[in-house]
Each structure stands twice: as structure tokens, then as C-alpha cells.
Specification:
By secondary structure, the protein is an alpha+beta fold. The chain has one domain: Thiol Ester Dehydrase, Chain A. It is about 15% helix and about 30% strand. The protein has a six-stranded antiparallel β-sheet with strand order 1-2-4-5-6-3, with helices on one face. The longest helix has 13 residues. It is globular, with a radius of gyration of 17 Å. The chain starts with 19 loop residues before the first helix and ends in a 7-residue tail after the last helix. About 5% of the residues have low confidence. It binds dodecyl-COA. Dodecyl-COA (DCC) binds next to α2, β3, β6 and α3. Dodecyl-COA binds next to α2, β3, β6 and α3. Keywords: Apoptosis, Cell membrane, Cell projection, Cytoplasm, Fatty acid metabolism, Hydrolase, Lipid metabolism, Membrane, Transit peptide. One of its GO terms (molecular function) is thiolester hydrolase activity. It is found in: Cell projection, Ruffle membrane; Cytoplasm; Membrane. Its EC number is 3.1.2.2.
Length: about 170
């Protein structure tokens, strides 16, 4: 019988002072240790430091199917959310999604290479405004997302054993 794996998600897991990457190793979007995760790998572009961008190349299969032959809408949202979350590190901020909008423009195909791109738009205090797209390799936009991420305050982070990098 299997037991629930909660190791990375409890205060006790702070023993040994794991890094944030170690604690996020089971993230469904990018965690390398999640056997059922998407294992997305992003590269970030900070050429324009005030508008960092992130890009991942991916291809999905039957596990992620919604309509026959196409990616499930919830997975589409997950991809966009994950891509936008990757903008927080180059901005030196720990933040979570507060609000997200998704435009499902075209069905997103399974079994074909896709490009996931995000870019930081602007900041208003603790609110970070990000955008993301899922594109074909030819540049056709299949889905588009916009989100508000909230920079976490000290009290929330302290409970998880972290401080903001920019504090
Ligand atoms: C250890 C960590 C590692 C961090 C590691 C992060 C891993 C990321 C993983 C991928 C990303 C995710 O899926 S993250 C997981 C999904 N997200 C979550 O679970 C977050 C759940 N929500 C929360 O916990 C809470 O809402 C907080 C902490 C984010 C904020 O709570 P709060 O302080 O009470 O504030 P709240 O009233 O909710 O509103 C925040 C601000 O957003 C504004 N706001 C709300 N909707 C909108 C909107 N449509 N457009 C503009 N602004 C909006 C409000 O007006 C307000 O502005 P103003 O009054 O400030 O002006």
C-alpha cells in the first residue's frame, strides 16, 4: 500500500534548510521529481530587465487530452500560469497567482511541438502583471493568458520559512 508523500509540504521538511528549488521539486508544472508532472524547462531572457521573458518548448500526449487529439483546457491554463510564474525569479520576487484570464483561441494539439512564452508587463506595488501565450513553432497563437501575481508578504513567507529576496 502506498503512503502519501507530504515531505516537501510541511514545516518539518525545513530540516536541513532545503532551497526553494528543492521544496518545489514536486511542482506539477516544473518539478523534476513529480512523476506525473509536465517537467517544463524554461529559459529566461532579461535583455530588457524591466520586462523579463520566459520560454519553454514542449509536446504533450494522451495523458493531457481533453477534446480528442487536443490538450485539456485546464492543462492549457496550467501551462500559461506556470510560464507566468517563471517571471518572478528574474524580477527577484516570491509571488503567487491571484487572478488569471485565459483566451482559448484555437484548440491546442497533442503530439506536436509547442512554444510557451511569457512576458512581464508592469508592476503596481505588490501586484505583478504578466502575460503568456501558447504558440505553434510557426508562431500561430493558440491560447493567451493574463495574470495578476501577488508578492507574498513577510508573515506568509515566514510561515513557510522564506524571506523575500528583495527585502
Ligand atoms: C513559499 C512560496 C513560494 C512561491 C512559489 C510560487 C510557485 C508558483 C507556482 C505557479 C503559480 C501558482 O499556481 S500559485 C498557486 C495558485 N495561487 C494561490 O493559491 C493563491 C491563493 N490566494 C492567496 O493566497 C491570497 O489571495 C494572496 C496571498 C495572494 C493575497 O491575499 P490578500 O493579501 O488577502 O489580498 P487579496 O484581497 O486577495 O487581493 C490582492 C490584490 O489583488 C487585486 N486583484 C484581485 N483580482 C484582480 C484583478 N482581476 N485585476 C487586478 N487586481 C486584482 C486586489 O484588488 C488586491 O489589490 P491591492 O489591495 O493589493 O491593491
Amino acid at each position: 500500500m502506498s503512503s502519501q508523500d507530504t515531505v516537501r509540504h510541511t514545516p518539518l521538511s525545513m530540516d536541513g534548510n532545503p532551497t526553494i528549488d528543492e521544496r518545489a521539486s514536486h511542482c506539477f508544472g516544473c518539478g523534476p521529481a513529480n512523476p506525473q508532472g509536465l517537467h517544463l524547462v524554461f529559459s529566461t531572457d532579461t535583455t530588457v530587465p524591466e520586462h523579463p521573458a520566459a520560454t519553454a518548448h514542449l509536446q504533450l500526449d494522451r495523458l493531457h487530452e481533453g477534446p480528442p487529439g487536443y490538450v485539456h483546457g485546464g492543462i492549457v491554463a496550467t501551462l500559461l500560469d506556470e510560464a507566468m510564474s517563471k517571471l518572478n525569479r528574474p524580477l527577484d520576487v516570491l509571488a503567487v497567482t491571484r487572478h488569471m484570464e485565459v483566451d482559448y483561441l484555437r484548440p491546442v494539439p497533442l503530439f506536436q511541438p509547442l512554444v510557451l512564452i511569457s512576458r512581464h508587463s508592469h508592476r503596481d506595488g505588490r501586484k505583478l502583471f504578466h502575460q503568456a501565450e501558447i504558440q505553434t513553432t510557426g508562431g500561430a497563437v493558440l491560447a493567451r493568458g493574463k495574470a495578476v501575481f501577488i508578492r507574498l508578504d513577510k508573515a506568509i513567507l515566514a510561515r513557510a520559512g522564506f524571506t523575500q529576496p528583495d527585502d
